[in-house]
Amino acid sequence: MAETPDFLPPILDLRGTWEEILERLYAVFSRDFKKGAVHHRGIRIISDNRVLPDGHDKEEGFWHVVSKEDRTSRERLIDYRRAERLPWARPMMESADITEIRVFDYDHGTKDAGVRRYIWLAEYDYVLILQRKKKVLFWITAYYVDSEGGRKDLSRRYEKRLQNTATAC
Questions:
Q1: What residues form DSSP beta bridges with 68?
Q2: What global pTM score does this model have?
């Protein structure tokens, strides 16, 4: 399996100092998600634009697609496998009709999260998760699937997906 699908840009090189890596990642995020509207199947996508005091002047939506929460410290730490794939997010959102991309809605139940839209590049272990909020889709997260358990969980959700996913979300 190739490192990058033919229809997507290459993954980012994340070598360098933390400041260089952060600048490179935020430049991609800004280019792809802050300059011009992003749509998935005709529905506008937005992300969490709150900037928290400990967010280094970066939006929460940015941090949720390049880092993960450390269970002990509760801090968000860079997730290199997730972050290096950031350039894939916008093309996957906008090119969801490519056969390698599985687009489906899964109902987590009202207690948890309701219906979420998954845009999953299964052969390359990368998934985007969005949720309908009124007339837009809210980009919750994106991550690299780094375990067999994670792959099985996504496969189970895909098998139990809502039918008619084009209109459910």
A1: 77
A2: 0.89
